[in-house]
Amino acid sequence: MSEVITIGEPLVVFASEQPDISLTDAEHFHKGIGGAELNVAIGARRLGHSVEYISQVGTGPMGKYVSKAISNYKIGTNYLFSDNEHFTGMQFKQLVTRGDPDVINYRHGSAASYLSSGQIKAVDLSNTQIAHLTGIFPAISKSALVAFEALLSRLINNKILVTFDTNLRPSLWKDRQTMIESINHFASYADIVLPGINEGKVLTNTNDPEKIADFYLHNSRTKVVMVKVGSRGSFVKIKTGEKSFIPGFKVKKVVDTVGAGDGFALGVITALLEGKSFKSAALRGNAIGALQVQTPGDNDGYPDKNELKKFFQKTEISQESEA
After folding, report:
1. Strands, sheet with 11-19, edge to edge from the N-terminal-most edge strand
2. Can you tell me the distance from the alpha carbon of 84 to that of 12, in angstroms, rounded to the nearest whole number?
3. Long-range contacts of 72-76 (CB under 8 A, 24+ apart)
4. Which residues belong to the active site?
5. CA-based diameter of the chain, in Å?
6. Exposed / middle / buried, residue 242 (Cβ in 10 Å: 0-12, 13-18, 19+)
7. Among candidate residues 167, 128, 140, 184, the one with its CA nearest the CA of residue 265
8. Helix 305-315 and helix 278-292: axis angle, to 10°?
9. CA-based angle 106:108:114, to the nearest 5?
10. How far apart are CA 203 and CA 179, in angstroms?
11. Per-residue confidence in pLDDT tens, the chain, 323 aa
12. Mapping DSSP to helix (H, G, I), strand (E, B) and coil, where does residue 243 land?
């Protein structure tokens, strides 16, 4: 089995190639694959780590495209199921140089939303070291929620380290309060929680990074909280009380902001797999987030080992730095 396992909904992404133009007026699009958890899987593979991806796609052209693309990335597809009755989700995404893009999703009733808890029973967790979960997949349907909970239960029973990115998607939830209660409930089962500062404001009623961290560190299972604070970097606090602010990296030009948070998550995960400290993990997360915002697409900026090394050399910061 792979070092990393994750579960999510893959999307065929049609990304505008015209910066800061509305989707109404955009005429040229690039076709690719995306989805928060899949982004993390792609980035982890580029850095040389094995990943298994749990999901379901349709049997039509879009589903075949996703399956082929995932296989080309050498991501494990043992649990990428096929559904001949439902379609594969799609997304049209605006290209923006600052802020959040306008996004239109066609995902309601997708094949991934029909993934069942029964299918989760087939998943082999032997040798899995880290499971990465987000707040998106359990929001897409009742079936996905049950499957997500079944996987989470198995992960805990098998004592597998769980990272959880809050990843708020209000449009997928019944209402705001349900979203807040559900996300915070799932976070309580995670070893490492990765909220963004704006998400933290929604979930904990404060935009103070340390107070956000303290909110989740009260959970019995949570050992570390890393709060993403955009271009400023990240704040790390460990249950022992140790805390650090890890500065971000300056970039010459922001091309697209999508995928930066997932880049942070994959940086943290891969660094921990390589035995690095939590502070070094956050530093790598900041670096990959900075690389990602300089490229279009959901995951185009994620580096391989050599590219990451060169990035740190240019900044004159050691990858081994404790920041």
Report:
1. 29-34, 11-19, 90-95, 103-106
2. 17
3. 73/41, 73/42, 73/45, 74/45, 75/38, 75/41, 75/42, 75/45, 75/51, 76/2, 76/50, 76/51, 76/52
4. 262
5. 53
6. exposed
7. 167
8. 100
9. 125
10. 9
11. 799 999 999 999 998 999 899 999 999 999 999 999 999 999 999 999 999 999 999 999 999 999 999 999 999 999 999 999 999 999 998 987 777 778 899 999 999 999 999 999 999 999 999 999 999 999 999 999 999 999 999 999 999 999 999 999 999 999 999 999 999 999 999 999 999 999 999 999 999 999 999 999 999 999 999 999 988 999 999 999 999 999 999 888 887 777 889 999 999 999 999 999 999 999 999 999 999 988 877 888 899 999 999 999 988 676 655 44
12. strand
Tokens of 27: 């005429």
Distance of CA 90 to the CA centre of its chain: 17
Structure tokens at 126: 């032997």
**Torsion angle defined by CA atoms of residues 95, 288, 44 and 169, in that order, rounded to the nearest 10 degrees:** -50
Q: What does 152-189 look like in DSSP terms, one character per residue?
A: HHHHHHTT-EEEEE----GGGSSSHHHHHHHHHHHHTT
Per-residue pLDDT tens for 280-296? 999 999 999 999 988 87
Instruction: Give the DSSP H/E element, type plus range, for residue 90.
Output: strand 90-95
Residues pairing with 104 in the sheet? 92
Q: Are strands 233-238 and 243-247 parallel, antiparallel or unpaired?
A: antiparallel
Structure tokens at 100: 């959040």
> Computed over its alpha carbons, how large is the radius of gyration of the chain?
18
| CA 181 – CA 200 distance, rounded (Å) | 13
